Hints:
Elements: H1 10-15, E1 17-37, E2 40-59, E3 75-98, E4 102-127, E5 138-164, E6 168-179, E7 188-199, E8 216-222, E9 239-246, E10 250-257
Antiparallel strand pairs: 1-2, 2-3, 3-4, 4-5, 5-6, 6-7, 7-8, 9-10
Amino acid sequence: MYNLPGITNPVANITEYNSKFDQINLLSNAWAEYAFLPNLKYRLSANANLYANRRNAYTTSKMPLNQQLPPTAAVGSSFSEQGVSWLVNQVLSYNVSFNDAHNLEVLIGSESNKLQYQSANGAGGIFANDIVQTLNAAGQPTSVSSQITENATVSYFGRVDYNYKTKYLLKLSIRRDGSSIFGPDKRFGTFPAASVGWRVSEENFMKNQHVVSELKLRASYGLSGNNSFSNYYPYVGSVGSTNYAFGDNRNRAGHQLTGQLRP
């Protein structure tokens, strides 16, 4: 051990800290497509992800702490988490071309997904010895916590894509998205978008030059939304633990609001 605060034996840091991490991850996806007509197709795709992680860690009583020589107080911890998510996408599309000039694609669809997640975390100390290194042998728990999270989204969308001789382009789209993260009165939003384009390189006056192979001008406008800022339902006031005086003026365990309600 070095004679400096906070500096321990590097060998002990490796040999006296035992950590085991187990991980399982199962990912699956599938899709199917069916043509009702030569130009009318339906496509269904889905995927699912199941994962589970677990870590058990233990610092033995032989680990030097700062300038304190062993034996020291052993500590153990355990963390586990599990999550499952799935997504289903459905699209019905229609493509048509006529007069060797006009090309049109119309598309409508829906998408839905859901996430479920839970975790548990615990730590403890005062182990009788270093033989049993799991938390059931801890004489005193130092921290215990757990959480469960669940959210879902659903979307409906449509798009019209038109071009004239692949030269003049027009695209219109609209989405209607809903997320369980938001409050019941603000759960859905509508997001339109439009764009126009001109492939200048397809014009006749660009055919005889060899400097620019592709030149396109495009202007677009649209609205978009975001629900990735939190999984904790910000429209609901959150509650945390605290102590309060009751009766004989002794501290009692209780709860208090820790987050503001945002409807």
